Each structure stands twice: as structure tokens, then as C-alpha cells.
């Protein structure tokens, strides 16, 4: 019989596609992943991975095992979630995932109040760009700018986030034909704020790209170009200003999301209600 921990390391490799990616996912070193996979191969009597010079590649047997193991992992997560959801008390660990800027600028400063109200809850806040999986318990609550399509997720709209075009003081005194722009990586050209920015740019040069809003803001402060920022993120920064342009305004709905099996868990409900309350009462969505 194989060790389930060995299988977890193999699943991480299959999902990440690289040894280093699996190690990062599991927060272990490369050697541990390699050792665990070797132990699984020994237990199953099959070679699951071709260890090539530059990368590891799943064998046919490895692909078969990965397909079956994914279902096993899904069932394991469902079982654990069902048990956790029966906890009617508030004492629990709750993990919240949110877009990085929203996590650091809005949520983190307010979680001190939540901790004071409910010291029995252990909070973890993940400022993450990728869509984390609630089904795999990578988080208990997600804050997203898109409504989920997963049938096992429940969501509620708590409001909207509005955007403006920002640049360094005095930047727009330049001839408009000389304006440059600050954008996400081209892989995110489909994101609404990127579409909005590129439409306004109208083919003018993208002088800097970054998927990190903090980096974009630093670049805008130094006069590198015009960027699309949520007002809550940039309006109070004294080194940039919102451009008084006639561009059509942009806002995006914001949602609180949980797995259907976890929404009844007392601690999860408390944290979701707190975030919704703070958004309604504290969120400043206006321009300066």
C-alpha cells in the first residue's frame, strides 16, 4: 500500500509540471519531492516519471495514476470539508484570498478589528492573483472581481470597484501624442481594466508592463506613463493624480465567495459578514 503523503507530492508534480513548482506548492525542498515520488514508484512498482536532463515528464503510467489520483484528492478534500463544515463553533482557522491591492490596502488594516472582536478566529490573508481553488481548500473565502462559474461555489455581490487613469503630477501637460502607458502583461489584455486602458491609449506606446499594481504605481510616480488604477488604491497618493479625461468610466463588481459546504461554518460566516460590513461602511470608491 502506498503512503498518501507520497501521492500528494506526485499530484503536486503533475499539477505544477515541474519539480521546482511542486516544491513551491508544497513548501518543501526539491529533494523531498524527488524522494517522495521515488517512494511512490517503489510502492506501486511502476516508473511514473521520466527524469530528463532539464525536466521531469510523466510516463504513460504516471499519466494514468495522475488521472485517478486527482479524483482521490477531490474526494479527500470533500471529506475534510464536510467534517470542517460541521464545526458550529467560531473557533477555527479561516483563510481569505483577495486581489493583492485589495488585500493589502483595504482588508489587512481592518482585520485588526476583526481579531479584536473574535480572538478565537485565526486569520490568514492571501494576496493572490491566480484563481485559487476553494474546492481544494486553498482558501475558505475568496474576494474576486468576477462572479464564479463553479457550481459548488456560492457568492454574493458586496459592491463595486471603480477605476481611474492616473499619472504623475504634470504628466498630461505633455502633448497627448507623446503619452505612454503602463499596463499589465499582454496575457491579461482581456481583463476589463486593461481593455479600457488600451482603448484609451488608442495605439499609443505601452512603455512599461507589470502585473503588480505596486510596481505600476511606482512607475507612474516617476513619470513613466498613464495607468489604470482602482480609486481606492491610488486616489490618496500625493505623487499621482487622476486624469480629467472624457474616457468612459469603468467599474467592476466585487464578490465574496465560499464553497457551498463551508458557508454554514460559523467562523467562515463571521469573516464573510465582517468583510461585507466593512466594504459597505468603509470602502471609499470615489475620485479626489
TrEMBL record:
SUPFAM superfamilies: Periplasmic binding protein-like II, Winged helix' DNA-binding domain
Gene Ontology biological process terms in this record: DNA-templated transcription
One MF term in the entry's GO annotations: sequence-specific DNA binding
Keyword Transcription regulation: yes
Signal peptide: none
Lineage: superkingdom: Bacteria
Chain ranges of the HTH lysR-type domain: 2-59
Transcription regulation keyword on record: yes
Family the entry assigns: Belongs to the LysR transcriptional regulatory family.
Protein name: Transcriptional regulator, LysR family
Organism: Paraburkholderia graminis (strain ATCC 700544 / DSM 17151 / LMG 18924 / NCIMB 13744 / C4D1M)
